[in-house]
Write a structure and sequence with these properties.
The structure is a homodimer.
Chain A (H helix, E strand, L loop, with lengths): L2 E2 L4 E17 L1 H4 L9 E2 L10 H19 L9 E6 L5 H7 L6 E3 L6 H14 L6 E7 L1 H8 L15 E2 L2 E9 L5 E6 L14 H20 L8 E4 L3 H14 L8 E3 H4 L12 E2 L1 H18 L4 E9 L3 H5 L6 E9 L10
Helix pairs in contact in A: 2-3, 6-7
Chain lengths: ~350, ~350
């Protein structure tokens, strides 16, 4: 079972693996630097559906189906599914999972959902509560734009700090002792709010949460940034990344040497005109499942801290003058299990 | 650690208790048959806030604070908080938990959230992932009406099948081996959809999910309805309860003798003019935390199946002609731990 190693962090005592993973996206994602690593690309962002919300459900289902297929599994082989998304009442996930018959726990962690679902899947797998658990999430540019900002037809101008919601979904399946990538520790985030109220500057709202979780992890485990090949944040974008660097520098835990952000990896920021970078639950999910997990699997990345960040406001709370609370959940993903007897 | 005893059910091997619980509500709830059992009642349903959404956050915070206080605990004594609500992006919970600094996992299970949060709290407590975990949820009549139906000022007429959203919040704290109420087994729900698309008839949409989870529990554990003092459903109301009875009768698992529904307990349906009964995340949460848990604690109820049901649609999905998927999660709550050496 998992051992608490500090206030915020749990160490998984049994080697817990991600046995399969898949990333699905659409045209803009395929045109980005990571496009070739995606498992499924549908150039048509409607995914054959009549509404953007149904398109998102179908997209998430694509990623889940592909992750199952890659491991030669069917929905009946999964003990538990953990999923969520940005849409009101998380309909992207619910409708996507409707026909699968898998015991289902719905989550809401905004853009932190890939880390939240994966850490819960890992804890429940390691604790013997499920032989195989499935973690999934999605976002869709068009469903997010009209829900959080403007109808697409309005053609609203975007601020320089705005990020572009990824049309993408990721899914991971966890099981015990099946080789890399292993999940070694997880740090559960706290809600942080530094008083940002600009809905077009999510990076600034989320950076304090990323800072809190990352510093909690280093404190709880006694590690330092240099112990990892890569510190990968969810979707801070260019503004949030700069702020996180500043906060970490001030705490004498500089991450500038080995930090990357999913929001800056997924698109060519200038060529693809995405302003401050990518965002959305699908951003961290697809970068993890397309580009990062294969590298950990083959060993070109040994130890990675994956931390997805989420801004937990709603359009209503912002209209009511509320500031934006944020959260970040972290997983230490590794090529080795860190258990005795392993040759590495 | 928890043992899987079938496809959907987990048995908690270590005695896992609900060490503290609290229910908060407003005037209409105080005027109902269970009003006197609530821990906190604020006659003013604004809870001193300027908007209904902020009122709901404050309400949830009341329940959480009271549950902590009853156990002489502070937020720092809690390892993990699991919470969610009906509001878009679950802002009732996020803003309520913002200042507490507790590691936080956001959930979305619609009106099933009290069962979802409590079963996860129980599994993670029993698995050693947290010494004390906190499960909470809330709903508010006014924030729900305007989000899901009409602005209050519109004075919309309600159909006979409509249910009244409870202005209430419940919170439970779990820990190992601290006396009754114990959580002995949990059954995680599957998403069920029988094609109901009437947003004013949630009971009908949720009854199939309740049927699926309840029959899964009896099948997995080899028990039958008569083994329990009470089978308590979340908020099926009068329509959903009748449908559940019918489905259970057909499966030769009649529950008519010992079934009650939180939606029918919380209000005087005729006197308080709530049509088909109460609903909302706060319905099952407050009935459990005000009226049921004390009876299990003192032993006047020995074995209770608590199953909260949730309708997982959104106004958008319904407007797009989608049917309403639903889910139900179940916990077996008991006065005894069921472990050897216990005198009872």
């Amino acid at each position: 079972m998992a051992t608490r190693i500090g206030t915020y962090t749990l160490r998984l005592d049994k080697p817990t693996s991600i046995i399969s993973f898949a990333a699905a996206g659409s045209r803009k994602e395929s045109e980005g630097p990571l496009g070739k690593y995606f498992d499924c690309i549908n150039e048509d962002s409607t995914f054959g559906e009549k509404t953007w919300e149904k398109a998102e459900s179908t997209l998430q289902k694509c990623a889940v189906t592909k992750a199952l297929k890659k491991a030669f599994l069917t929905p009946g082989d999964i003990d538990l599914m953990l999923a969520g998304d940005l849409l009101n009442q998380c309909i992207g996930s619910t409708y996507g999972a409707r026909q699968m018959g898998i015991p289902y726990l719905g989550l809401y962690g905004a853009c932190s959902t890939m880390a939240e679902s994966l850490l819960l899947a890992a804890l429940l797998t390691e604790g013997g509560m499920g032989h195989r658990c499935l973690a999934a999430t999605s976002s869709h540019f068009c469903s997010a734009e009209r829900q959080f900002r403007f109808p697409l037809e309005y053609g609203g101008q975007r601020t320089p700090t705005a990020q572009w919601t990824v049309t993408g979904a990721g899914a991971c399946i966890t099981a015990l002792q099946s080789g890399p990538p292993y999940i070694r520790e997880v740090t559960i985030g706290t809600i942080e709010d530094y008083g940002i109220c600009d809905i077009n500057n999510m990076g600034a709202a989320m950076a304090p949460a990323a800072y809190a979780t990352l510093s909690h992890y280093f404190h709880d485990t006694g590690t330092k940034p240099g112990d990892f090949d890569l510190i990968l944040t969810g979707d801070l974008g260019v503004i949030g990344s700069q702020l996180l660097h500043q906060l970490m520098d001030e705490a004498k835990l500089s991450i500038t040497a080995n930090h990357k952000d999913c929001g800056l990896l997924i698109y060519d920021r200038i060529e693809q005109d995405v302003h401050a970078g990518g965002s959305g639950c699908g951003c961290a999910a697809t970068v993890l499942c397309s580009y990062i997990l294969p590298q950990i699997q083959e060993g070109s990345l040994k130890d990675v801290l994956f931390m997805a960040t989420g801004a937990m406001m709603s359009p209503t709370s912002v209209q009511q003058g509320e500031t934006i609370p944020a959260i970040a959940h972290l997983l230490h993903l590794s090529h080795t299990s860190g258990k005795e007897g392993e040759s590495c």
